Amino acid sequence: MMLVGKVIALLAITTSLALPVGAFAPPRSHQSTSLLEAEAHSRGDFISNAAIAIAATSVAVIPLQPANARGRATLEAAYDRYTPRIIDGGKFFKGQLYGAIAKGDWKAIETATAEPPKKSKEDRALADGGIAKRAAQAGGFSDSRVLSAMDLFAATFSESSISPKTKAMQAEVAKLREVVQGMNKAARIAQGEEKAGGGFFGVGGKTPSKTELASEVKDLYMKGGNAFNQYVYAANDGLPVQLNKLPFL
């Protein structure tokens, strides 16, 4: 097992929407000198006079065997096609989505994680089948805009059978998919657009308060950030030197 370094989550305790203070610590391994150079940077812009609790945990990941994509040309083509969406998604997650959660802007959270509307007849009539139009309508950290690209890039590292590297990367995407869906639902509930139902967030049949929803979204944000970094760690492992490593949050 390769040990991953400490994941530091700084939690600001406020009377409004509580949001973790601090960048996500990138997964690190004592076996990788390049990853040892990646350091997390604190987010002091959210630190005030409120009390701060620091929680440190250690995470273990499954060692990944080197996995090559279907030829170097294929890997480079997939890298050029998918990583811009992944990198932009990480920036959005750390920037705009962070800000929306910090301010308790439920509409912005809903928009950020929203899927585009279903393809219409008008879309099908367009030259590209409406792909560009629908992509522009997808949220900045939505399945259509970011997670689908992460899944497709992960699949590039498999050939006739699914490799351990692809499985590890796609497992993190599955976690992110739960995060995005959970955030979107919480935002809709907070705005009265949807009912909780089904014991949502473990609060039984009653509608959760905005304080409860805010706490859940905060936890989802941290879960998503750490899953994104684990994905990046797996993607960068064994990446050819001519390709730039993906940045951590």
TrEMBL record:
Residues 1-18 form the signal peptide. Keywords: Signal. It comes from the Eukaryota. The keyword Signal applies. This is Uncharacterized protein.
